[in-house]
C-alpha cells in the first residue's frame, strides 16, 4: 500500500496562489479566526494525523472488514482508537456552529481536511463524513431542543450520524419509498421500515448513532411531495443528555461488497422505533436538498483521493521499476534497464493522474469557497450568486471527478503491471474503493440529469451563463498574453461552443423530452472537461506569473505549466467525442424495441 503523503505544497498552491484564501476568508462574516497562520497550523496537524494514524489503517480495513454479531458491528482493528484520537483532536467540531460547541471555521477548511482523511483512508473517513451530513441537517432544520440534544453530541464527536434514504426497491427514485412514520400521543413518531446500504449504520466507534431517516406520514401525498424527515437515535437520550435505553432500530446484516470494506454498509430495520420530526411535514426532501450540495462535494473528494493515491503509488513505482530501454537510448546505462518512467506511455498514465488530482483539488476548493459564501457571505447578493455557482458546479464535481478519479485509480494499477493486480501494493484496493463514488449520492446518470435538466435547461441556461461569464472575463483579461495563448485560445473556443451545444440540446429537447436523458451524461462529461480547462488555464497563469517574477521553486511551477499543457493537448480533446455524441439523438438509443434486447 502506498504510504499517503499529504500534498501540502499543492494544497497551498490551490488555496493561496490560485484562490487567494486569505482575501476570501477576510471577506466572510465571522471568519476572523481563519488567519493564514491558523489555517496553516490546522492543515499541518491534519496532515500528520492522516499520514501517521489513518493511512496505516487503510489496508487493515480492507483485509479485515467489519464483522456483524447479535451484539453489534465491530470495525477493523485500530478504527475505534483512531476515531478517539480524532475526537480528542477536536476535528469533528472544526466547521460547526459555535452555539453548539463548534469552532465555526469556514467549510472550505473542512474540505481540505476531508481530502486528506479521504485519501489516507476513505472507509474510515466515511464514519465522520456521514456525521457531517446529520450535523448539517439538524443545524439547518432542527428545533432548539433537537439541537441541544443531538447537535452538541454530533459536534463533539461523542455520537455519530447516518443518512437513511435508500430502501430495497429504491435509491435514485426516493419518491417511492415506503418506510412509515405513525404519530404517537406524546408528539413522537413510530418509524417502521427497512433501509438498505446505510453507511456507518452500526459500529463500535461511538456511544450512540443518530439516524436521519426519510419516511412517510399516514395519508401523505404520493411521490416526493409526501416524504418527511426524522431523527431516530440508536439509544434514546436521557433527561441529562446521555445515551439511554435502546431504541427499536437494529442492523440486520452487513452487505458484502467490492470495496470500502472498512466501512459498515448496513441493512437497518426500524421496528416501531421512536423518532422525532425534523422540519415541516412532507418537506423532507426539500430539507435534504439544503445540504445536498455539500454532501455531494464531499463525495466528489473520493475522485480526487483516488487519483492522488494512485498517483503517489505509481510515481514511486515508476522510478524504481526497470523495464526495457528508452526509445531514444539508455537513460540508466549502468542498470540492466531503464526505469519505466522514461517511457512515453507511462508518462501518459502518470500525467493523467496528476492532471486529474490537481484539477480536482482546484475544483473542489473553488466549490468549497462557494459553500463558505453561501453560509457566511456578507450580502444577500453574494450569497445568492455563490449558491447559483455551487449548484451548477456540484453535479459536475460529483460525477465528473468520480468518473475520472476512477479512471486514474485504474491507471495507477496499470503502471504497476502485474503487481498492480496483487493486493499487497494497494493499487487494486484503490480501484475497488473508488468504484462506489460513481454510484452513491446520486449516480452519474442522476447527476447528469440534474445538471442538464434542472440546473441548465430549467434556468434557460442562466446557471451555465454564470460560469461561462467568469471564463469569458478571464480569457478577455489575458487575450494579449502571448505565453498564455496556447491555453486561452482553446479555452475561449470551448467556452463558446458550450453555450452553442446547450442551445442545440435544448432545441432538440423542446421537440422530444427524451433528448435530455440521451445527451445528459455526455453533456456532463463535456462540462467537466470545460471546467477543468478553465482551472488549468488559471493554474498555468499563476505559474507563469511566478516564473516571470522570479522564484526559487522553478521545478514546481514548470511542472504546473507542463501539466496544463498535457491537459490541453491530451485530455481536453476528449470533449470532442462528447460534443458529437451528445447531439447523436435519442433515436440511436430508443429506436430499438425493448423486446429486441433479447438473448
Ligand atoms: C456502499 C454503499 C453505500 C451507500 N451508502 C448509503 C447511505 O449511507 N445512505 C443511503 O441512503 N444510501 C446509501 N447508498 C445507496 C445509494 O445511494 C444508491 O445505491 C444509489 O443512489 C443508487 O440507487 P439504487 O441502488 O436504488 O439504483 P437505481 O436507482 O435502481 O438505479 C439503477 C440504474 O438506473 C439508473 N437510473 C435510475 N433512474 C434513472 C433515470 N431516471 N434516468 C437515467 N438513469 C436512471 C441509475 O443511474 C443506475 O444506473 C449506498 C450504496 C452503497 C452501494
TrEMBL record:
Highest taxon of source: Bacteria
EC number(s) recorded for this UniProt protein: 1.3.99.41
UniProt GO molecular function: flavin adenine dinucleotide binding; oxidoreductase activity, acting on the CH-CH group of donors
SUPFAM superfamilies listed in its UniProt record: Acyl-CoA dehydrogenase C-terminal domain-like (SSF47203), Acyl-CoA dehydrogenase NM domain-like (SSF56645)
All residue ranges annotated as the Acyl-CoA dehydrogenase/oxidase C-terminal domain in the record: 282-450
InterPro entries recorded: Acyl-CoA_dh-like_C_dom, Acyl-CoA_Oxase/DH_mid-dom, Acyl-CoA_Oxase/DH_mid-dom_sf, AcylCo_DH-like_C, AcylCo_DH/oxidase_C, AcylCoA_DH/ox_N, AcylCoA_DH/ox_N_sf, AcylCoA_DH/oxidase_NM_dom_sf
Catalytic activity: 3-(methylsulfanyl)propanoyl-CoA + oxidized [electron-transfer flavoprotein] + H(+) = 3-(methylsulfanyl)acryloyl-CoA + reduced [electron-transfer flavoprotein]
Record's keyword annotation contains Oxidoreductase: yes
Domain Acetyl-CoA dehydrogenase-like C-terminal: 467-593
Cofactors demanded by this protein: FAD
Gene3D superfamilies named among the record's database cross-references: Acyl-CoA dehydrogenase/oxidase, N-terminal domain, Butyryl-CoA Dehydrogenase, subunit A, domain 2, Butyryl-CoA Dehydrogenase, subunit A, domain 3
Root EC class: oxidoreductase
Domain Acyl-CoA dehydrogenase/oxidase N-terminal: residue ranges: 68-158
Claim: Flavoprotein is one of the keywords in the record: yes
Residue stretches making up the Acyl-CoA oxidase/dehydrogenase middle domain: 163-271
Keyword terms, alphabetized: FAD, Flavoprotein, Oxidoreductase
Matches recorded under Pfam families: Acyl-CoA_dh_1, Acyl-CoA_dh_C, Acyl-CoA_dh_M, Acyl-CoA_dh_N
Role noted for this protein: Involved in the assimilation of dimethylsulphoniopropionate (DMSP), an important compound in the fixation of carbon in marine phytoplankton, by mediating the conversion of 3-(methylthio)propanoyl-CoA (MMPA-CoA) to 3-(methylthio)acryloyl-CoA (MTA-CoA).
Family: Belongs to the acyl-CoA dehydrogenase family.
Protein name: 3-methylmercaptopropionyl-CoA dehydrogenase
Native source organism of the sequence: Marinobacter santoriniensis NKSG1
Amino acid at each position: 500500500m502506498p504510504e499517503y503523503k499529504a500534498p501540502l505544497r499543492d494544497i497551498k498552491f490551490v488555496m493561496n496562489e490560485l484562490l487567494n484564501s486569505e482575501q476570501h476568508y477576510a471577506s466572510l462574516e465571522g471568519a476572523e479566526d481563519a488567519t493564514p497562520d491558523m489555517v496553516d497550523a490546522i492543515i499541518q496537524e491534519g496532515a500528520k494525523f492522516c499520514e501517521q494514524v489513518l493511512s496505516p489503517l487503510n489496508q487493515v480495513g480492507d483485509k479485515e472488514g467489519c464483522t456483524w454479531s447479535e451484539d453489534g458491528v465491530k470495525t477493523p482493528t485500530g478504527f475505534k482508537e483512531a476515531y478517539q484520537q480524532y475526537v480528542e483532536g477536536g476535528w469533528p467540531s472544526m466547521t460547526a456552529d459555535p452555539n453548539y460547541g463548534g469552532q465555526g471555521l469556514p467549510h472550505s477548511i473542512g474540505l481540505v481536511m476531508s481530502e486528506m482523511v479521504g485519501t489516507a483512508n476513505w472507509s474510515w473517513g466515511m464514519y465522520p463524513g456521514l456525521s457531517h451530513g446529520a450535523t448539517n441537517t439538524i443545524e439547518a432544520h432542527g428545533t432548539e431542543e433537537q439541537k441541544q440534544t443531538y447537535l452538541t453530541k454530533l459536534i463533539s464527536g461523542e455520537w455519530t450520524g447516518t443518512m437513511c434514504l435508500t430502501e430495497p426497491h429504491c435509491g435514485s427514485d426516493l419518491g417511492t419509498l415506503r418506510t412509515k412514520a405513525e404519530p404517537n400521543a406524546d408528539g413522537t413518531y413510530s418509524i417502521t421500515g427497512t433501509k438498505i446500504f446505510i453507511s456507518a449504520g452500526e459500529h463500535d466507534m461511538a456511544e450512540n448513532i443518530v439516524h436521519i431517516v426519510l419516511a412517510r406520514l399516514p395519508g401523505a401525498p404520493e411521490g416526493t411531495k409526501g416524504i418527511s424527515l426524522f431523527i431516530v437515535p440508536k439509544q434514546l437520550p436521557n433527561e441529562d443528555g446521555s445515551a439511554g435505553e435502546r431504541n427499536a432500530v437494529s442492523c440486520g446484516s452487513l452487505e458484502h461488497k467490492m470495496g470500502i470494506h472498512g466501512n459498515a454498509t448496513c441493512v437497518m430495520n426500524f421496528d416501531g422505533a421512536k423518532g422525532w420530526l425534523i422540519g415541516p411535514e412532507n418537506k423532507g426532501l426539500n430539507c435534504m436538498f439544503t445540504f445536498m450540495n455539500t454532501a455531494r462535494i464531499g463525495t466528489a473528494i473520493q475522485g480526487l483521493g483516488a487519483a492522488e493515491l494512485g498517483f503517489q503509488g505509481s510515481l514511486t513505482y515508476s522510478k524504481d521499476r526497470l523495464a526495457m530501454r528508452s526509445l531514444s537510448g539508455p537513460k540508466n546505462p549502468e542498470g540492466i534497464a531503464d526505469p519505466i518512467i522514461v517511457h512515453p506511455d507511462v508518462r501518459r498514465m502518470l500525467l493523467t493522474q496528476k492532471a486529474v488530482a490537481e484539477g480536482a483539488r482546484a475544483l473542489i476548493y473553488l466549490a468549497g469557497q462557494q459553500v463558505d459564501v453561501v453560509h457566511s457571505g456578507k450580502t444577500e447578493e453574494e450569497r445568492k450568486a455563490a449558491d447559483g455557482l455551487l449548484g451548477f458546479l456540484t453535479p459536475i464535481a460529483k460525477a465528473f471527478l468520480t468518473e475520472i478519479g476512477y479512471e486514474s485509480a485504474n491507471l495507477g494499477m496499470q503502471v504497476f503491471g502485474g503487481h498492480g493486480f496483487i493486493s499487497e501494493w494497494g493499487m487494486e484496493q484503490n480501484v475497488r474503493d473508488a468504484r462506489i463514488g460513481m454510484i452513491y449520492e446520486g449516480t452519474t446518470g442522476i447527476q447528469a440529469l440534474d445538471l442538464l435538466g434542472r440546473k441548465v435547461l430549467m434556468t434557460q441556461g442562466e446557471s451555465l451563463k454564470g460560469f461561462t461569464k467568469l471564463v469569458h472575463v478571464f480569457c478577455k483579461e489575458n487575450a494579449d498574453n502571448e505565453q498564455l495563448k496556447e491555453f486561452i485560445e482553446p479555452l475561449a473556443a470551448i467556452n463558446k461552443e458550450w453555450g452553442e451545444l446547450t442551445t442545440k440540446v435544448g432545441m432538440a429537447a423542446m421537440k422530444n423530452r427524451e433528448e435530455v436523458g440521451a445527451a445528459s451524461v455526455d453533456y456532463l462529461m463535456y462540462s467537466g472537461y470545460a471546467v477543468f480547462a478553465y482551472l488549468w488555464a488559471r493554474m498555468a497563469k499563476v505559474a507563469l506569473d511566478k516564473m516571470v517574477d522570479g522564484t526559487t521553486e522553478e521545478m514546481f511551477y514548470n511542472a504546473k505549466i507542463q501539466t496544463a499543457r498535457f491537459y490541453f493537448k491530451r485530455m481536453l480533446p476528449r470533449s470532442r467525442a462528447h460534443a458529437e455524441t451528445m447531439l447523436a439523438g435519442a433515436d440511436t438509443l430508443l429506436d430499438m424495441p425493448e423486446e429486441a434486447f433479447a438473448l
